[in-house]
Every structure is written in C-alpha cells, then in structure tokens.
C-alpha cells in the first residue's frame, strides 16, 4: 500500500526554522511528482511547493518563495521541506501529497492522488 507520513512540525519562534519530512513508503518515488500543501483555520488549502519526479524542477507559492526549499531523495523515498525565516502567517497544518503524473509539478491540490495525515506548524513567540 502507498503511504505518506509527515513529520517535523512543531512550535517555533518567528524567524526560526523547521524541516518537514515526508516518508513515501511503498512508492517508487521517481515516478511521482510530490508537493507540500498547508491549511490554516478558516482558509482554503494552499499549495506551498512541489517538485518533479526527477527532482530537477520545483515550484513555490509567492508567499514562501525565498524562504522555503523543497527537495527529495528518491533512493531513500523521502521528500523534505526546509522552512526558514518563519512567520506567524506560516502557521498551518502541512500535508505531503503525491501524483503519478509526468512533467512539471503543480500547486493545485486537485491534481494529487495520495495524501499524508498532516503535521502541525505553529509560529509564535
């Protein structure tokens, strides 16, 4: 069975850093595009970042560009989101998602077939 399990969330102060991890156990990860999404209370789910199946191309939401970096290790079946210079506005539940399509990745949640359970990120002093 295909599984996505996020970890690494927690409470951090503004300006701090976190690295989120997504364990993609069961996937032949080089066949899947992967993305990170987040949802804050009262907000729609937002695409944060994504990475192509090969890892050669990425995409970022304007709100996180320059602060967040997505990466993947297909051999280890892991996807990461390095989050720096965190702001209170980054507070949300963060989800890892995978899509078996080819080509450039998308930040649209409707294009992803597999989802993790989420990990909470809270940015507060």
Measured by DSSP, the beta-strand proportion falls in: 35-45%
Distance between the termini: 40 Å
Shape: globular
**Mean of pLDDT:** 94
Q: How many strands? A: 11
What does this structure look like?
Helix content is 0%, strand content 44%. It has 125 residues and is mostly beta strands.
Offer a concise description of the structure.
The protein has 125 residues and is an all-beta fold.
Features:
125 residues, mainly beta, seven-stranded mixed β-sheet, four-stranded antiparallel β-sheet, 11 strands, 44% strand
Blueprint of the fold:
Elements: E1 5-7, E2 10-12, E3 18-23, E4 33-39, E5 46-51, E6 58-60, E7 68-73, E8 78-83, E9 92-99, E10 114-115, E11 119-123
Parallel strand pairs: 2-11
Antiparallel strand pairs: 1-3, 3-8, 4-5, 4-9, 5-6, 7-8, 9-10, 9-11
């Amino acid at each position: 069975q295909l599984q996505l399990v996020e970890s690494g969330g927690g409470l951090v102060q503004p300006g701090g850093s976190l690295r989120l991890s997504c364990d993609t156990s069961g996937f032949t990860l080089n066949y899947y595009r992967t993305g990170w999404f987040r949802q804050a209370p009262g907000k729609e789910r937002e695409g944060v970042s994504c990475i192509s199946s090969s890892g050669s191309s990425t995409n970022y939401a304007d709100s996180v560009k320059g602060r967040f970096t997505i990466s993947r290790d297909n051999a280890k079946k892991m996807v990461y989101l390095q989050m720096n210079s965190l702001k209170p506005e980054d507070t949300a539940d963060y989800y890892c998602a995978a899509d078996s399509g080819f080509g450039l990745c998308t930040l649209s949640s409707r294009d992803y077939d597999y989802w993790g359970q989420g990990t909470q990120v809270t940015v507060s002093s």
